[in-house]
Design brief:
alpha/beta, Rossmann fold, five-stranded parallel beta sheet, 5 strands, globular
Length: 195
């Protein structure tokens, strides 16, 4: 069973609207441990309105915010909604699509390599089909997400799957088109720690 004495640092990964925030909150409540929510960037609405103009600023802000969260959780344990690894996925997709200049991508790469970024003990990857992610994003209808291109969402899902297949850390992949209960997820995480 998870206890605060264990100081476990668990990251929840997945594309936009995969269900990360919901699961992160459920696990935090289930185990009564700290939760670092995904930061809401002051650039978010601007970014979705004009990817090219705001991509670099958005990505630098998100990396800095996530590192701050990882430093806290590496010391005290808890759950992190989206990990810094995922910032690299977003940056590559933006560069591949021409929404981030190569020099900005290289600057993000340099910054990423330079940051002190404690790693989660385990990352839970919520794998969804592109159509699931797109539908969930539409269903939640967040004002700041208006303007997300479906092609961008599809590209992100493919990039996440590639990342997961190459990830060298501890990864538990959950097929999240049909979410499990928090108890079922907690059982899988506890089983990971017991082995």
């Amino acid at each position: 069973m998870y206890t605060t004495n264990n100081r476990r640092y668990i990251g929840i990964a997945g594309t936009i609207a995969a269900g990360k925030s919901t699961l992160a909150k459920q696990l935090s409540d289930y185990w009564h441990v700290p939760l670092i929510k995904e930061p809401i960037s002051p650039y978010l609405a601007d970014f979705y309105a004009d990817n090219k103009e705001y991509a670099f600023r958005m990505q630098v802000y998100m990396m800095a915010s996530r590192v701050k969260g990882s430093l806290i959780l590496s010391r005290f344990g808890g759950i992190q909604d989206r990990t810094i690894y995922e910032d690299r996925i977003f940056q590559k997709v933006l560069c591949d699509r021409g929404d981030m200049e190569q020099r900005d991508y290289e600057t993000c790469s340099l910054l990423y390599k330079s940051l002190s970024k404690p790693s989660p003990d385990v990352v839970i990857y919520l794998k969804v089909k592109p159509e699931t992610s797109i539908q969930r994003q539409k269903d939640r209808a967040r004002v700041k997400e208006i303007g997300i291109d479906e092609g961008y969402m599809e590209h992100l899902v493919m990039a996440y799957n590639t990342w997961a297949s190459q990830f060298t850390g501890n990864l538990i992949t959950l097929h999240w088109d049909n979410p499990l209960s928090v108890e079922e997820v907690a059982e899988q995480i506890e089983s990971f720690y017991d082995n």
